[in-house]
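Bumping with the actual sequence this time:
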Amino acid sequence: MYYRIMEELYEKLKKHRVRFYPGQKKRFRDLITAEFNDLGYNNITIDKAKNLIVGDVQSAKVVYTAHYDTPMLSPWFGFAKIFGQIVGGMIMGSLLMLAVAVAAGLLAEGLLSGAFFASEGTVYLNIGWWFLLLTFFIPSPGNANDNTSGVLAVYEIARRLKVQGKGEGVAFVLFNSEELGLLGSGAFKKDLVKAAKKNGMKYEPKFLLVNFDCVGIGNEILLAYGSGRSKEICKLMSSNFEKPVIIKRGSLFTYGSDNLHFKDNGIMVTAVKRSLLGPIYLPRIHAPLNMNIDLNTVRGICNGAMKVHAN
């Protein structure tokens, strides 16, 4: 029964692989809202940042989250597969800076010399621009791991808790615009701070945030933290999972996701593999052909993450 239900939703989500532009995101939100309604969740809201919120976050003790937007196409996945996540990211960042410098230099030279509109000038200029375009504005057509897998994990935990009658004190959030720099979760955090100030209180997180990002491919589990307090949470959770667990500090350019806006009370859960040279990496992120994930890997991560609620 478990596998069939998750597989059915996964098949539906395959029709919404790309959630990059506003219309694509709205069609996905309509679908997933209907799925949560079918589970019996009626307290569903869409905030200004287009985050989808299920349940009462203000009274929640645990909030399970994932981002639902999908990434732009990028060669990062190739570098990470060889060198690992960190070095692969450094190579990618260096290429981006080089592309910006080349494009800006060619633009300045072309404008100053008057050759900008000549064919030979624009050919060289386009080398830099095309690299930037492919990196930032062309959506990846795959996205099964990044981050349909996280959406499936959130949904599956919501389903199980509803069946078990243990959903009290739990909320779920699917964040928008993670790929553009954690914008959706940033807006969500600001709303919480504003709500606290409106009530004459200082914002203090009262819930544990467990964020799923790329949990569909890998033979090891990475728990990423943002501060000493969340590191302790990772240590407590590490024994919950069947696969080997690695604990590392996360950042926007290494092992970071929407949990970084909740450094003291939020962690990221992800599945990783070993690169060809040994360091870990998140498989098939920003990759053009990421069409499939291992649902059993998602299931195992759900099993481990749900023990937080049980405890």
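The tokens above came from a reply further down the thread. The mean pLDDT is 87.
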